[in-house]
Amino acid sequence: MSIRLALYQPDIAQNAGTLARLGTCLGLELHIIEPAGFPVGDAGFRRAGMDYLDRATIRRHASFDAFEAWRLAAQARLLLATTRGAVPYVAFRFAAGDVLLLGRESAGVPEPVHAAADARLLIPLAAGTRSLNVAIAGAMIAGEALRQLGGFPAGAAA
């Protein structure tokens, strides 16, 4: 088992579609925690996900509480990507089954979600910059997790 991606109430359909495509290409589940700021069938979501959406493994959760019930039953660690993170993602030891949670583009995640996280991961940025696009951040951290776990798809160098 690899890691999983999760989006907390995503605002931008194109970012969610991009992450669904990433998940398909790298063999990762994508979990969408509702409410999303767009219909999941939105044209921007479909355009960014392209023809990969038919092959994507997407699980939708009606709320963070519903997601948490699933996660706790799955015994998966919750890793929050956040600008308020304490651990640089390249220094973190990933484990199979981890869930990488990405916050809303407009607001991140609320304090109760921060509190639920088992780890808060940071992407170190250049001075004077605030944050990366959520899809870029997700791809960077997922790539490192897969490198550590030897979880890239068959035939790829890890």
- Secondary structure class reads alpha/beta
- CATH overall fold name: Alpha/beta knot
Topology order in helix (H) and strand (E) letters: EHEHEHEEEHEH
Query: What portion of residues is helical?
Result: 25-40%
What is the CATH superfamily? SPOUT methyltransferase, trefoil knot domain
What is the name of the CATH class? Answer: Alpha Beta
Q: Low-confidence parts, pLDDT < 50 over ≥5 residues?
A: none
Biggest beta sheet summary: 7 strands, parallel
Oligomer: single chain
What can you see in these coordinates?
The two termini are 16 Å apart. This protein has a seven-stranded parallel β-sheet. The protein is an alpha/beta fold. 36% of the residues are buried. The chain has a single domain, classed as Alpha/beta knot (3-Layer(aba) Sandwich), CATH 3.40.1280.10. α1 (13-26) packs parallel to α2 and α1 (13-26) packs parallel to α5. The protein has helices spanning 13-26, 43-49, 64-74, 111-116, 134-149; strands spanning 4-8, 29-33, 58-61, 78-81, 87-88, 99-102, 119-122. It contains five helices and seven strands, in the order βαβαβαβββαβα. The radius of gyration is 15 Å and the shape is globular.
Write the layout of secondary structure elements.
Blueprint: E1 4-8, H1 13-26, E2 29-33, H2 43-49, E3 58-61, H3 64-74, E4 78-81, E5 87-88, E6 99-102, H4 111-116, E7 119-122, H5 134-149
Parallel strand pairs: 1-2, 1-6, 2-3, 4-6, 4-7, 5-7
Features:
158 residues, single chain, globular, 7-stranded parallel beta sheet, alpha/beta, Alpha/beta knot
